[in-house]
UniProtKB/TrEMBL annotation:
This is Cobalamin-binding protein. Keywords: Signal. The keyword Signal applies. Residues 1-23 form the signal peptide. Pfam families: Peripla_BP_2.
Amino acid sequence: MNPRMKQWILLVLLTLSPALTMAKPIERPIERTVEGNIERIVALSPHAVEMLFAIGAGDKIVATTEYADYPEQALSIPRIGGYHGIQLDRVLELEPDLIVVWKGGNQPGDIEQLKKLGFTIYHSEPESLEQIADEISELGDMLGHQEQAKEAATAFLERLAGLRNAYAQQPPIKVFYQLWSNPLMSISKESWIHQMIHSCGGVNVMADASTAYPQVSLEQVLLTDAEVIVRPEDHGTSKATAMIWDKWQELPAVKNKQIYSIDGDLLHRFSPRALDGMHRMCEVLMTARAATAKRAN
């Protein structure tokens, strides 16, 4: 596995289970900055960048981290580091009014140093789909973008409810989420992706694993009788995860050719686009159900 892929998989694992990276309750700024005074923001995660653009505050971002690539305007924002650390000297030079941090993707020492330097810190740590809307609203209040934030949060919750209503009552179907192939890894009920699978009426076959992102054996997977395999596609991972199944025809998902790839950024980021990932997940499971019904007839 090359170094870039190693870094990507580490970031994904942390994204999928934010609760495991939080030793303390979510921290919020004790004192809110007066509305209108926040003009320069350092956003230290891709999902924070997406949230800020969603409320019309993307033009306030003066720096971000690697992988912040959506929307297209985000590509022009200067990078000051990533999961392995940020350039504190660059932060000092930029003199931000607000820094949006993420415990799952920023080094604890960097966050503590930013606090000691006196910067106003906002912790973005959503643990459920609903909390994405909560954070959109909070950021809107802080930045004086209440109206656009309210519209974005409301639209998000309405779409989430619509997806759940449309798919949650569908016939259950067994899903193996293939997070990685070497080693073979999946996700449990403690992870972010489990929420999506469950909301789509799927049954996560690794839900009861003892860790959020368990390393599993091929034998364990074969015993699940998974009817669908879903894998994230990002930074070359579709090729990395595509090669191991063909000879295991005893697994229904393989035998019936029900193996699907979904854009990993849509599945793994705490942003409004998470619902695009969830919608795609639901469509995949509906396609697999239809294939099952056709074979039965």
